[in-house]
Amino acid sequence: MAGKNVLILGNMAKAGVPEQIDSLRGWFDDRVRIVAVRSARDPLPTDCREADLCIVFGGDGTLLAAARALAGSDVPLLGVNMGKLGFLAEFTVEHMQKHLDAILTGPARPTERMMLDVSILRDGATAFASPAANDVAVSAGEPFRMIDLHVTRDGDRIARYRGDGLIVATPTGSTGYNMSAGGPILEPTLDAVAITPIAPHSLSLRPITVGIDRPIRVLAKIVNAGTAVIVDGQVRAALGENDVLEIRRAARPMRIVPHPGRAFFQTLADKLQWGRSPHHAADAP
């Protein structure tokens, strides 16, 4: 393992994260070569993209920021949870230490998860571009009037969405904002996205899952002054009238190291209480 290069990223503004990384520095130095220790939200030097592994200290949001920072590389991400949920950042510090050897030498393989390339086209030019790991949301914004979005895929009409906005979620992001808005949960390795309306002005307009083999285009027919595109809940860009939001499957996926021995559906049950029976009064002691 001594020849392996490891990049360490973290939420350096979160209490306890810099201290935890510092306390592990000697342990890491005995096992791997540390390429750099940086904030997950800072730009990364080119050599960081050649690391054998990126260990991310923080919560799920920190891991998403790291995924965007390393988008297009093949660097696997291992999330050490120091946040609230730990759905993507599955490892505790102790579990990371226990499994690091197997992760670096091969037995514990990372899984590939689709990412998106997001852009806003304005008057024929690209006004905004970003990778997305979790989701892309169009939020109505102030003055909070209903907006009108026309969605197509490679020229084929999907639907007209009138309401408070729209979410396009990757399988990874299907358990986030998408799920909270009533969208479907997608298995992580599916090659599809969920399109979920936010407060649609229709009883018949429901979430839909579609393939992402062709680009999805969202025409902003009627929007508000504050209407915005929000990527992964972290990156924001204004969306104006007649702008086109274009969403494509990224050429390379992100690679996430799963917790050994823990299946996706077990994580759903443990973290989100999925599939658990309700607690009835008669069952109480």
- Structural class estimated from helices and strands: alpha+beta
Q: Separation of termini?
A: 52 Å
The 3D shape can be described as globular
Number of helices: 5
Low-confidence stretches: none
Strand content: 35-45%
Could you give the order of strands across the largest sheet? 2-1-3-4-18-5
| Strand and helix order | EHEEHEHEEEEEEEHEEEEEEEH
> What is the domain tally?
2
Any idea what the radius of gyration is? 20 Å
Going by CATH, what is the homologous superfamily of the largest domain?
Answer: Probable inorganic polyphosphate/atp-NAD kinase, domain 2
Query: Which architecture of the largest domain would the CATH scheme give at its second level?
Result: Sandwich
Describe the structure.
With 285 residues, this protein is an alpha+beta fold. The chain has 5 helices and 18 strands. 17% of the residues lie in helices and 36% in strands.
Task: Record the SSE blueprint.
Elements: E1 5-10, H1 17-29, E2 33-39, E3 53-58, H2 60-69, E4 76-81, H3 93-105, E5 111-113, E6 116-122, E7 125-132, E8 135-139, E9 147-153, E10 156-163, E11 165-169, H4 177-180, E12 192-198, E13 208-211, E14 216-222, E15 228-231, E16 235-238, E17 244-249, E18 254-256, H5 264-272
Parallel strand pairs: 1-2, 1-3, 3-4, 4-18
Antiparallel strand pairs: 5-18, 6-7, 6-17, 8-11, 8-15, 9-10, 9-14, 11-12, 12-13, 14-17, 15-16
Any descriptors?
single chain; about 280 residues; alpha+beta; Rossmann fold; Tumour Suppressor Smad4; six-stranded antiparallel beta sheet; 5 helices; about 35% strand
